[in-house]
Amino acid sequence: MKILLKKHFGWFYEKLNNDAIDSYAAQVSFWILISFIPFLMLILALLQVIRFEDTSLLVAFVQMLPPPVEEVVSYLFQEVHAPQTLISMTAITCVWSASTAMVALIKGLYSVFDVSKNHNYIFMRILAILYTVVFVMTLLVSMGLMVFGDMLYEWLITVMPPAFPTLINRFKPIMSYVLLLFFFWLMFIAIPRKQVSLRNAFFGAALASAGWVLFSFFFSVFVENFANYATIYGSLAALVILMVWLYACMFILLIGGEIAMWLQHSGINRDVSDLKTERRRRKLISEKGNDANGKTTDKK
């Protein structure tokens, strides 16, 4: 058992070092920070397109982030303005800028999943823009569900059994986890293109989502109760908090991809199966030996 653990943890550790996921996590978090303003402008522009002037969607977007990050995003929403002329060519510019972070993330996942990096720049950009558009649409749908969820909930109460409200309240906290899991799972399947099976991609996405949610929760508790960033960094405290949170979340996401690859290519599934078979074989031999000893005792 010790040999098995040493073998597979050694494989995992070596792959982490070779893939340099800490460098990719830093690169992705940096470009997300740089692309944040164009991304917010794109969100505001889309809200103008759908003629939704209520601020509820913006509030919902802010609430999707950890409390320490809420201040930064709330301030940016107040300062960033998206004029009506943003639609058309300027919107394309915003998508292009916001997709830079996605390019960095795709490169990181290519490294994790051992995908060939011979793709040209234009292909990478087009792929990143497509993923960015899908992400923005998913984000808008999630925000809409958060805003109009209460209205839908009140309507469902009138047509569903009495136990329905209690059931919904119990499962409400895990909805964000499920959405995150689904998005990561699609990402691990689509970007590496069949480098891992659906099951292993799901396990990696599940662990990455759980790590993301748990880290965000404990990081919020730490910042609010223990850390004193404002004293050290002054007015830059909120920016530093956002950067640390982004880096950790991107690192956790890439770790999830590494786990999926570990399950797929390290041979751990085969080794665990062989170990179980060997244990069953030894158990049968032991039981046969006990039976033989019992029969010998009876004869005496």
TrEMBL record:
Transmembrane segments: 30-50, 86-110, 122-148, 174-191, 203-223, 229-255
Keyword Ubl conjugation: no
GO cellular component: plasma membrane
Superkingdom of the source species: Bacteria
Keywords on record: Cell membrane, Membrane, Transmembrane, Transmembrane helix
Main localization, broad class: membrane
Location within or outside the cell: Cell membrane
This protein's name: YihY/virulence factor BrkB family protein
Natural source organism: Hominenteromicrobium mulieris
